[in-house]
Amino acid sequence: MTDNTRKVCFMTGASGRLGREIAVGLARKGFDMYFTWRSNRQAAEQTLDTIRTYSPASGMIECDISDTAQIRHAFRSFSERFDRLDLLVASASNFFATPLGSVTEEAWDSLVDTNLKGTFFTLQEAANLMSRQPFISRIITMTDISAGMIWKNFAPYTASKAAVQHLTRVFAKTYAPGILVNSIAPGTITINPQWNNAEELEEELTSRIPLKQLGGTEDIMGTVDFLVENNYITGQVINVDGGRTLT
Ligand SMILES: NC(=O)c1ccc[n+]([C@@H]2O[C@H](COP(=O)([O-])OP(=O)(O)OC[C@H]3O[C@@H](n4cnc5c(N)ncnc54)[C@H](OP(=O)(O)O)[C@@H]3O)[C@@H](O)[C@H]2O)c1
């Protein structure tokens, strides 16, 4: 059993480009971390190695959040190991282009089953645990500014993120005052270096951002820190986008 005075965070998607920085940042801040990985075991193990330098009690579990049975199993394993849940960061997400007019059912299912269904059942499991605790806990969903934009090549992705912003408000109202539920909507923070037009894309996107630069992972971590410490914000979506949504 663990030291039950330390705060504990359950996180999905902690091996992602942004997710990893959030997980390590939270461990550095004093959280014990329990996180899920799906396909990239090596990235997850590297994340865990780094996290354990701050929090030896931290652990990880394989879990495809598009399968609700696996989510339930992950939370059961979590509860056998930890006896409190202070924070859920729901970051796991699929992202790929699906030009309107040729979206396949398979692509729709892959995006929506992970980003919307998986996030919903993750929040439900966490809220069921948190609502039995005699202290304030928090949920942060990771969405995207594109939830409010018209991106014709990404409709299933953007719709799933818009739906998660809605769920954020539903959970916030339902579980107040015990659980504070908010969403962080990043603009462009990382560009996948494997995309063959990565450099061009970075230039083009930067020109559309009023603050004239892509965001840094520290900008997202700063927002996570803010929400973890704040006691009077719930049901909000915080755009961290250099002003991109103003254009
Ligand atoms: N990075 C950005 O610039 C940016 C911009 C806007 C919004 N966001 C949002 O911020 C969050 C974090 O982004 P990121 O850069 O860390 O994303 P990322 O690099 O694409 O990583 C995605 C993460 O989600 C996990 N995942 C995907 N499908 C899953 C499934 N079915 N079950 C369980 N895990 C699954 C992946 O695990 P495996 O690798 O193990 O499969 C990985 O850890 C995401 O919600 C994203 O939509 C990011």
From TrEMBL:
Q: Which CDD domains match?
A: SDR_c
Asked if the keyword Kinase belongs to this entry, the reply reads no
Query: What keywords are annotated for this sequence in UniProt?
Result: Oxidoreductase
Q: Which InterPro entries match?
A: NAD(P)-bd_dom_sf, Sc_DH/Rdtase_CS, SDR_fam
Pfam families documented for this protein: adh_short_C2 (PF13561)
Q: Which domain of life is it from?
A: Bacteria
PANTHER family listed in its UniProt record: OXIDOREDUCTASE, SHORT-CHAIN DEHYDROGENASE/REDUCTASE FAMILY (AFU_ORTHOLOGUE AFUA_5G02870), SHORT-CHAIN DEHYDROGENASE_REDUCTASE FAMILY PROTEIN
**Family named by the database record:** Belongs to the short-chain dehydrogenases/reductases (SDR) family.
Q: What is this protein called?
A: SDR family oxidoreductase
Organism (species): Prosthecochloris ethylica
Read off the lineage from the record: Bacteria, Pseudomonadati, Chlorobiota, Chlorobiia, Chlorobiales
